[in-house]
Amino acid sequence: MSFESIRGQDHGVEVLKRALGRNRLHHAYLFAGPLGVGKERTARAFASALLCVQPTADKLACNVCHACRRLAEGQHPDFHLVERLEKNDGGTERFIKIAQIRALQRSLSFKAYEGERRVVLILEPEHMTESTSNALLKTLEEPGQQTHFILVSAGVHRLLPTIISRCQRVRFGPLKSEHIIHLLQQSGVHDLDLMETVARLSEGSVGRALMMLEEDIVPLRGQILAALDADKNQPLSEALDLAEDLAKPAQRKRLKQAFHILRTWYRDLLVVKMGGERRQLLNIDEHARLTNRADGLSAKVIQERLKRTGEAEVAIWERMANTRLVLESLFVFLAGRVPMELSQ
Ligand SMILES: [Zn+2]
Predict the structure, then answer these.
(1) Which of 33, 157, 218, 263 is the most exposed place for a label (fewest CB within 10 A)?
(2) Nearest-angstrom CA–CA distance, 8 and 41
(3) In the chain, what are the domain boundaries?
């Protein structure tokens, strides 16, 4: 993994290259920015440069020495990855466990195997309980010789301030559509119209764009709009069927996409309602439909729908509420079947 493969993150990459070139390295970095914009990729490229035993004149990874190769194969003994574990049912644990941090501390108490440096990559450190965070903090405070931590987070606001203050922050912004399209092409996508649509809808995240393609987001959007964004005389059964379907455990990824669709849809309706321009739309391919729908809804109603959507998301993903009940009541509301005064 090298910095050349990173797209659209010139600032962050430059900061890291300069630190490597001058050998002025911090012992802990926090790569902060939205999901799916290249933070982990950059972290791995940085780790490679740190661990390479035959670096270039600029102190970048050679990508051919045994250290670079072992790292690429996930076999480097001085590279430690900490992330949420997979559960037996294929899902992901809600938290990084304290036992994982303790195991890391044990490994770090030994000498480095290969060279002098060690790298610890921690993905999603915001998914830690307070006691786990405090255990990590201890390690960050006494890292031992030549140990470099890279924390990769899309939820910095949920980290302990004491952890943030220990780290040098490197910011990652959303990607431009052209970069997303380039990366999608590299991963074998060819349909240009589709790529342009998901690039806009992804709000600058190639990770999200890929997930959208995987979940067939365009047909899903059609299905959601048919059920929820139709006229009031339509039976509610379609909305309720959709709620039942999306509430199934096997549909978790699809449900995430469904929420994203709803959020971008109401956001776009507001843009149209406020007289925004076509180029500001995320669902730019649905411009005509948006204009039409915005005519029939007040800004207040659209805002309320956006708000309810956000609340339902929090209820499901953070408060672990009953997914089906939350979706049913949300969809009935979004379908415009509950007068706003009565539903509050
Ligand atoms: Zn190398």
Answers:
(1) 157
(2) 12
(3) 3-171, 215-343
